[in-house]
């Protein structure tokens, strides 16, 4: 498997820095432990660990209201848990936040059977939230596109992290 | 128990230049506050999120006190926020809790284990360095300036009289005088934050 086939956590961190992220509001998922270690070591980032994903959107709204640039880092299961908070705090207050969502259960090949994955895009579509799929380093510019779109539209935009290659797990 | 509006009148004398998120007390606060440009009367964007929103704002603006009037029904929806706040430990965050022991906006049904939950004890257990509980306004009034003079995070649980609403939401009087968008715009202007 070539390096290009992986989404390296260093690439994701570089995208965060490039887009001026100040705070990462997050709840661990099964794909992001290496990214966590990198973020923890990055002095320009403050990590805010929440206990349920819905709390991430209200916290991100507060950060954005105060002039900071948060990113929400959660799994698709948690995204679905967050529905009302996403509606009221992020969409309702016109918060331009990017959420990186671990696309648990999704696969490019064969049949995706995990309902966490099969409902993810339907959920985002129901909320009218645009999204970009990122599977490897070559897709990384889509993260910057998501930031630009969020800023321009003053809406949340999702980045779905397809973990086919388990790039975050090493 | 005491009335929320009476408490807010006393609080207003002590708020200084703090940012205030009045939460469900907004309908009283908009008529009492003398610094509306520093208020965030957002109503209820989504139940359970006021404390986390206040945390985000406090972390974003560490130079400014942030005071939130949360409610026990909201807090019960996301008690884990107490651990997050305690871990972040923003010294400028003052977490007031209006505990009327019920869901007043839906007709006054009791919250789980209403009347028997010690929110100050839960906050201390979650790692808040300070937490208080008041059921008499006189006691709160005596202690308020001291609470605000010391660093946060602090939780102040208050027993307040329920103001039960039974009218359908569509028929209730709208107390907001500004849109949420305007509220955020005004705050950013007051704090010198670029739009």
Keywords:
heterodimer, A: 170 residues, alpha/beta, Rossmann fold, 8 helices, 6 strands, globular, disordered C terminus, B: 195 residues, two-stranded antiparallel sheet, 7 strands, 16% strand
What ranges of chain A have pLDDT less than 50 throughout 5 or more consecutive residues? Answer: 165-170
- So, CATH architecture of chain A? 3-Layer(aba) Sandwich
Main beta sheet strand tally, sense and closure of chain A:
6 strands, parallel
Give the tally of structural domains of chain A: 1
Q: Which outline of chain B best applies? A: globular
Please report the distance between the alpha carbons of the first and last residues of chain A: 12 Å
Query: SS-based structural class of chain B?
Result: alpha/beta
Widest beta sheet: strand line-up of chain B: 1-2-3-7-6
Q: What's the β-strand tally of chain B?
A: 7
User: What is the overall pLDDT average of chain A?
Assistant: 91
The end-to-end span of chain B amounts to: 42 Å
Helix content of chain A: 40-55%
Second rung of CATH, namely the architecture of chain B:
3-Layer(aba) Sandwich
Name the CATH superfamily assignment of chain B.
Thiamin diphosphate (ThDP)-binding fold, Pyr/PP domains
- For this structure, what is the CATH class of chain B? Alpha Beta
**Number of helices, where a helix is a run of at least 4 consecutive DSSP H or I residues of chain A:** 8
Percent range for β-strand residues of chain B: 15-25%
The fourth-level CATH homologous superfamily of chain A is Thiamin diphosphate (ThDP)-binding fold, Pyr/PP domains
Rg of Cα set of chain B: 16 Å
Please name the two chains that share the biggest interface, counting residues whose Cβ lies under 8 Å from a Cβ on the partner chain: A-B, 32 and 34 residues
């Amino acid at each position: 498997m070539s390096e290009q086939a992986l989404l390296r956590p260093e690439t994701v961190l570089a995208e965060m820095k490039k887009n001026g992220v100040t705070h990462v509001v997050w709840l661990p998922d099964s794909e992001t432990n290496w990214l966590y270690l990198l973020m923890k070591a990055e002095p320009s980032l403050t990590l805010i660990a929440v206990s349920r994903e819905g709390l991430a959107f209200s916290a991100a709204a507060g950060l954005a209201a105060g002039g900071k640039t948060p990113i929400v880092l959660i799994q698709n299961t948690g995204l679905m848990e967050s529905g009302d908070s996403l509606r009221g705090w992020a969409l309702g207050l016109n918060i331009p936040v990017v959420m990186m969502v671990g696309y648990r259960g999704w696969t490019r090949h064969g049949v995706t059977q995990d309902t966490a994955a099969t409902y993810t895009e339907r959920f985002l579509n129901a909320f009218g939230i645009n999204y970009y799929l990122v599977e490897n380093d070559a897709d990384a510019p889509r993260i910057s596109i998501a930031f630009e779109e969020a800023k321009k539209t003053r809406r949340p935009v999702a980045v779905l992290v397809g973990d086919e290659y388990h790039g975050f797990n090493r | 128990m005491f009335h929320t509006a009476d408490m807010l009148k006393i609080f207003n004398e002590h708020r200084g230049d703090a940012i205030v998120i009045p939460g469900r007390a907004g309908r009283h606060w908009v008529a009492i506050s003398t610094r509306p440009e520093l208020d965030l009367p957002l109503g209820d964007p989504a139940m359970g999120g006021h404390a986390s929103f206040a945390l985000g704002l406090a972390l974003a603006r560490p130079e400014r006190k942030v005071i939130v009037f949360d409610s026990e029904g909201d807090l019960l929806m996301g008690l884990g926020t107490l651990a997050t706040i305690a871990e972040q430990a923003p010294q400028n965050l003052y977490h007031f809790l209006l505990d009327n022991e019920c869901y007043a906006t839906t007709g006054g049904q009791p919250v789980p284990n209403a009347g028997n939950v010690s929110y100050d004890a839960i906050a201390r257990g979650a790692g808040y360095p300070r937490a208080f509980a008041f059921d008499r306004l006189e006691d709160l009034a005596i202690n308020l300036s001291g609470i605000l003079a010391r660093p946060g995070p602090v939780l102040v649980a208050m027993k307040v009289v329920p103001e039960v609403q039974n009218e359908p939401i569509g028929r209730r009087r709208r107390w907001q005088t500004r849109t949420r968008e305007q509220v955020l715009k005004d705050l950013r202007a007051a704090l010198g934050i670029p739009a």
